[in-house]
Amino acid sequence: MTKYIVFDCGGTKIKHGIINANGELLTKDAYKTVRDNLAVFLDNMLLTIRNYQQNHDIAGIAISMPGYVDIDTGYLERAGAITALDGQNMKQLLEAEFSLPVEIENDGNCVALAEKISGNAQECQNFVCMTIGTGIGGGLYLNGDIYRGYRYRAGEYGAMLTAFHSECMLDMHVTASFSKLLFTYKAYKKVQGHVEGAQIFAEAMTDTAVKELVDQWIQHISRGVYNLAVTLNPEKILIGGGVSAQTYLLEEINRQLEKYELWQAFKIPVEPCHYRNDAGLLGAFYHFQKMQ
């Protein structure tokens, strides 16, 4: 069966794997993202592709990438946290190296495609995905297709302003990303090193101070969800990212939304994405299929 290499390039990790023509992930792995060195970033990706080619008959490469992606040309005006790729054209670079078709799509749009084709939005023609990770991202699926906007900037919810502090407006990257929750938790607990989201949420159930900082963090997410709901009037909003596995997150978002005076007029389901860590890989493949 025909096989494809899929990449999901995030600010922390580059996830990659082999997927077959039926959309089944056969293998997956990850390595640390080098954000600011183009040569190293490319060397890591090229080595990964060559290793796969040694063991598989590869028919194409599909990539999920943060930032402003021109899906027709492959040009990345901005690549989110991966600054080394700003102004680069990954499609041209890889196609010249391997003589394989390469397709690239924004990571939030890949999540939306995965949810539409085989996830929790299969019945929807209008829905929104919000992904919570190193930053805040997302995808808009409107009137039966991905909405990319003028110059491919639609879905950059992280730029929405949700707080005011010391005469400065703060956006959702600053207030609502999982990075923000980690920073706040570590400062309170005076700890360093790796902390799992599950640990923070577990402590919130027994430590009132941790629960308060989690609820304050969720407040900023809820504001963004509310703003998207009243602006776009979608059928549902899906929350993605690894932290979406925490049941309390979705419960608290919905509790907070009930406090908004006009929510009853705009109320829609706010649910977790079906796909979490594999959404970008699968969505990149679906985009590849669509473009071929």
TrEMBL record:
InterPro entries: ATPase_NBD, ROK. Pfam families: ROK. CDD domains: ASKHA_NBD_ROK-like. Belongs to the ROK (NagC/XylR) family. PANTHER family: BETA-GLUCOSIDE KINASE, ROK (REPRESSOR, ORF, KINASE) FAMILY. This is Transcriptional regulator. It comes from Lysinibacillus piscis.
